[in-house]
Amino acid sequence: MTLLEFAISNLRRRAARSGLTMSAIALGIAAVVALTSIAWGFEASWQKANDARGTDLIVTRVASENTMPTPFREERVRQVLAAMPHVHEVVGLLSEMLTVSEDAPPVFVFGWVYGSYLWDHLKLQQGHWPREPMEDGVVIGSIAAETLHKKVGDFIEIEGKRFAVIGLFESSAVVENGALIMTLDQAQLITDKPGKVNVLNIKLDTTASEAEVQAIKERVKRELPGYVAITSGELVRKNAVVRISKAMSNATILIAGLVGALVVFNTMLMSINERTKEIGILLALGWQRATVMKLVFSEAVVLSLLGGAAGILVGIGIAWGLEHVELMRGKIDPVFSVPFCFAVLGLSVLLGICGGIYPALKAARMQPSAALRYE
Amino acid sequence: MTTASPKLRIQEVALHYDDGQTRALDGVSLEVAPGEFVAIVGPSGSGKSSLLNVIGTLEQPTAGQVYLDGKAYSEIRDASLFRRENIGFVFQSFNLIPTLTALENVVVPTVGGSGRVAAHRSRAQALLAQLGLGARMGHLPGKLSGGERQRVAIARALINNPRMILADEPTGSLDSANAEQVLDILKGVIKQQGLAMIMVTHDAKVSAHADRIIHMRDGRIEQEGGT
Ligand SMILES: Nc1ncnc2c1ncn2[C@@H]1O[C@H](COP(=O)(O)OP(=O)(O)OP(=O)(O)O)[C@@H](O)[C@H]1O
Ligand SMILES: [Mg+2]
Fold it and tell me: Of the candidates A172, A205, A229, which is a domain's last residue?
């Protein structure tokens, strides 16, 4: 019999209590997994959208910290940007979150410059793309088509204007699949923002080096006060939604870690108090104090590790469920990875160790003669 | 009975508690020969368990010295290791671990120590078979009779080949037939292997088996006698 086998048998002895402790840990870990994967999913899905579009730099108002930055008049800014070295294309984009159907949650509506490179990465499944800058039609992402129950040929009313669904597309980015896309001119018209965009997308030529990208950022800072050029990764990271959801996931990690450690602490303390006499026997039989400590630690870590593993499965289930709830469809794309799962297991082990420290020390410090007298 | 080289020698051992207010042991001297079975009797609170605790290195004496096979306890670096290698404890209430099988209980003292798991296991099997529990190895303590449980505890005490057995009322929870059997087993083992055995008992029928009876009172040896 090894120490680990002995530890597991001790946990099975109080199966109900061990099970409850593991459930408590599993719940905390599940919350961590669900929230963290969603927070990262927010970040990743916006990042993916920008990457899929082939956008190298994004220009917004400095103060904008939103997925839909404050709209601004684009013409002068665009001209300054277009004159910079290595800039291949500068195109405006307007995005809004709009309710387009009473019985469906709001969706993203994007306005993209007609004929720009932004459209290139989408795969048309049915219908056709807009044929002119002022076309009264929208193309619909595959997930939006499902949640809005619309197909090519149907009509959608957006901000008081009737649009024909002229095409159905598929994108590698979930946020785009959940969106409606029209030409920028139409989007400006219906939202009453003529000449305005939220962001300017810059596509550089392929020869631009890292240093040259940096130089462009510096020039924007100098020549366009009030504007900032950032990479899509930076935009996503300074995005308020992403930051809030990450802060929430961090808070959850902290709370789940503390609660988990407390639960382990409580369980192990109870368990060694009940086993005072038994620990006295083990010490009398020649167990080293270090072995007693290892036993208590093993029990704490087995509890937290099993709880953590169950929590990962439950958390993945929760995130998967949320992803498929109507309100969230097409807006999040939970990210799970093997390193993430290992990190969560690491967190579980850590909380087991933290919760186990005091009980392990207490058990190891018992006086065998006193413990043997204990009834 | 005296021998030239005693197995165990206890010299003027004292064990005080509460700054000397309680004198659990108050100058005890004793020698035990190899293969000798010494019974300790005396009223409750006379210091019998305290003496076993000092001999078993569970308590450090306030004064005096103990030698096992000539080695002074004051020179022991690692009391746990010393106990593991030299001392087999048997308790009144068996103190087996209820979720472990008889066989697993016997190997408990080896857990976390050196040596191969399989080797400990086969030694435990041999011991249990020797004690008539060959067919009971996979049973949990709850499924064993009192006598069987105490035999498992004896196997556990013997797993690391001790030099000495310390037993505190080992028959106190057994009926007389089982008590006789347990005593016969213990006597057989110590005679055969030249171990020393010190047994605390209240039962005159048990002490009658001993080579020598020590009477204790108020932390002292009151009277020594053969049987
Ligand atoms: N940790 C301790 N602190 C204070 N006094 C103690 C402690 N341990 C034992 N004593 C006292 O030492 C004395 C001897 O106790 P011991 O347990 O050796 O008696 P005993 O002969 O084994 O009695 P019993 O037959 O009831 O088991 C008693 O008066 C007891 O109260
Ligand atoms: Mg006693």
Answer: A229
pLDDT above 70 as % of chain A = 97
Q: Which pLDDT does position A1 carry in this prediction?
A: 85
What is the distance in angstroms between the Cα of A286 and the nearest Cα belonging to chain B? 4
Mutate to test the interface with A, among B95, B123, B125, B137 (most CBs of A within 10 A): B95
Claim to verify: residue A133 and residue A225 sit in the same structural domain:
yes
Residue pLDDT, tens place only, B71-95 = 999 999 999 999 999 999 999 888 9
Averaged pLDDT, A105-121? 93
User: Does A51 reside within a domain?
Assistant: no
Contact A335, A51 (CB under 8 A): no
User: pLDDT by residue (tens digit) across B57-66?
Assistant: 999 999 999 9
Interchain contact, B107 vs A1, CB within 8 Å: yes
Res. A198: pLDDT tops 80: yes
Sort B115 into a burial class: Cβ within 10 Å, 0-12 / 13-18 / 19+: exposed
Domain identity same for A278 and A350: yes
Residue A113 lies in a domain: yes
Position A104 scores a pLDDT of 82
Q: How far apart are CA A188 and CA A161, in angstroms?
A: 13
Q: What is the pLDDT of residues A33-52, one digit of tens each?
A: 998 888 888 777 778 888 88
Q: With bands split at pLDDT 50, 70 and 90, how would you rate the model's confidence at A174? A: confident
**How large is the average pLDDT for residues B165-172?**
94
CB contact under 8 A, A287 and B109: yes
Q: Is residue A150 part of a domain?
A: yes
Q: Which two tokens stand for residue B113?
A: 């120590």
Instruction: Tell me, using a 6 A CB cutoff, whether residue B5 lines ligand 1.
Output: no
**Partners of residue A202 on adjacent β-strands:** A57, A90
The reply to whether A221 and A258 lie within a common domain is no
Whether the Cβ atoms of residue B62 and residue B16 lie closer than 8 Å to each other: yes
The parent domain of residue A76 ranges over 57-229
Q: Is the CB of B95 under 6 A from ligand 1?
A: no
Indicate the pLDDT class of residue A210, thresholds 50, 70 and 90.
confident
Residue A106 sits in the same domain as residue A213: yes
Do A70 and A107 have their domain in common? Answer: yes
Structurally, how many domains does chain A consist of? 2
- Helices and strands: H and E segment counts in chain B: 7, 10
A4 interface with B at CB cutoff 8 Å: no
Taken in order of first residue, the domains within chain B and their CATH numbers are 8-226 (3.40.50.300)
Cα dihedral A280, B129, A1, A19 sign: negative
Q: What is the tens place of the pLDDT at every residue in A329-344?
A: 766 777 788 888 999 9
Cβ-defined contacts of A312-316 (< 8 Å, 24+): A312/A29, A312/A30, A312/A33, A312/A341, A312/A344, A312/A345, A314/A26, A314/A27, A314/A29, A314/A30, A314/A33, A315/A29, A315/A30, A315/A31, A315/A32, A315/A33, A315/A34, A315/A37, A315/A344, A316/A33, A316/A34, A316/A37
